[in-house]
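Morning!

This is the sequence you dropped in the shared folder:
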Amino acid sequence: MSDKEFRDFIKEIVRETVKEIIRSYKLLDQRLTKEWYCMAECARLKGVSQGYLIDHPEKQPGGGKHFRKICGWKRVHISVVAPWLTQDDDELDRENGKR
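The structure's back. Tokens below.
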């Protein structure tokens, strides 16, 4: 494989990776249609039970620290929910000081 072929190969891989990332964010944008989310909605979006999130506050969006009371309900803003949906348990543990 020549240098030019190798560079073209790498460029194509990068291009496809970027397309996939953009595609995943578009899917995420389609799922997040509101500004504020309650715990039940967060659990549904993440694919876990609401009870699990209640029992493990470190797994909640923003580590359970960014909730606001709106009309008597605890809600979290989309700016906290969006990145939280892409994080796995290990990332959440690191972010919230758990081992």
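Headline: Residues 1-31 form one domain.

More detail when I'm at my desk.
O.
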